[in-house]
Fold:
Amino acid sequence: MYPIPSSEITPREIFERRREFLRAAAASFGALGTPALAGEKLPATSPPNLAPNPGPYSTRETLTPYKAVTGYNNFYEFGTDKTDPEREAQRLRTRPWTVRVEGLAQRPRSFGIEELLKLAPLEDRIYRLRCVEGWSMVIPWIGYPLSHLLKTVGPLGSAKYVEFVSATQPDAMPELRRRVLDWPYTEGLRLDEALHPLTLLVFGLYGEALPKQNGAPLRIVVPWKYGFKSAKSIVAIRLVETQPSTSWVKANPDEYGFYSNVNPAVDHPRWSQARERRLGEFLKRETLPFNGYGEQVAGLYSGMDLKKYF
Amino acid sequence: MKAASVKNPSATTIAAVKAGLFLVCLLPLAHLGWGAWQDDLGANPIEFVTRGLGTWTLNFLLITLTVTPLRRLSGWHWLLRLRRMLGLFVFFYACLHLTSYLWWDQFFDWHAIGKDIVKRPFITVGMAAFLLTAALALTSNAWAIRRLGGRRWQELHRSIYAIAILAVLHYSWLVKKDLFLPVLYFALVALLLGMRAYWRNQERQAQLAGKYLHPRRGRVIPIMVKPGRLHE
Structure:
């Protein structure tokens, strides 16, 4: 991320951190092969500016510590307290794992997780994540744009939306019995949102395989929308013609919209969305429209009343 | 003079119980303070502290409301002498909870706070509960009882029932989806208030029937305490 012109001497702080750089690079390359995905995690202090191949969309903001990223999660199948998933999700079975990509596609079929890992080159993407509850994080994800997968199956012209279905493993997910939400957890995007280069199919974070509480073995990440739009532990991706009815919309349509773009001007009915607490920071910060990705995605919504389509 | 017993403890025993309870009531705060000192409050420590203080305000509210039924069921009338202190701890934790909101959530942005109070039902209800609690705390001394007169004082202090309902509403509206705990608190408040309603109704019926006797114990234990003896 630091520009290091070849003609110049390596900046001192980079030179002094070269071990960390090498370790980060090694972990990242390791992530390309499956066995290494389960390997050692990077220390939480790994400097964000040394992430290899950061790609065009990575933020340079300070990373949220690994401990917070993996210990403070909403994954209601494992409990509604944010400390529940880290403890409860470890029973989730992530191998073997297949993802059905079905519906309005020219070549619908199932993909094994190993096959999906090799479908496209993995990239590091440091994204902001804004939760509807008013907190946010900065997370280094590993994945590739979802569009690679969707283009592999070839959406038909009639496909307008994409529906994501999360896993249900009753013996591993204690909360399925409580029906806090309508299981299986489903989420959805409009096809153009799903094909947007920011929308990531994610297999890892912080240089290691996705921890189970973060949605192992694969999830999507849609950084300009509230966190719950980014479905975890996905088992099916459906191309459909009509807007899918998603779990949170079913639970409370007045409070959770299908779009759920991060929007400081549209409050949640019960709390303001104008500001957020970045985990690790004391003062709250202003929330940015589209979580700061407006330049890339605002065009998707031109002409739409985002107060109505919240 | 009667011998001291669990039913009728000596003044020294009551003083000791009171002092012990005072320290116990500070434990939740000490626990949060220790967590802060050890940097062990989770990934979102400010939210953790604000929620923790809110939860303990609610807990102390329920504990305070338990004194009367407990006294009635056990016959330990001296329990009443702990009630003011417990009630003041409700106010103490409510003050800390409110401060955490005003400071760490809003950073004393009075414009935003005003908007919150007007626009967000759960803040409106929480503020109303706090103001009522403050009114009760300020009139919790003997001077206020004399000044208001026992009956008016008691009428005012019955607003603790309203506070309990407002407080649970405040909590339940904050929860995104899983209403298990709010419903549990609602059930406890309903139980505590329901017991009172049941007893009142029984006494009223007994009075109407001309019987001034408690159906089981053979005597009426008045819910209303004689003015001036409220805090003994």
Remarks:
- Residues 225-232 of chain B have pLDDT under 50 and may be disordered.
- Chain B touches chain A through 21 residues (CB under 8 Å).
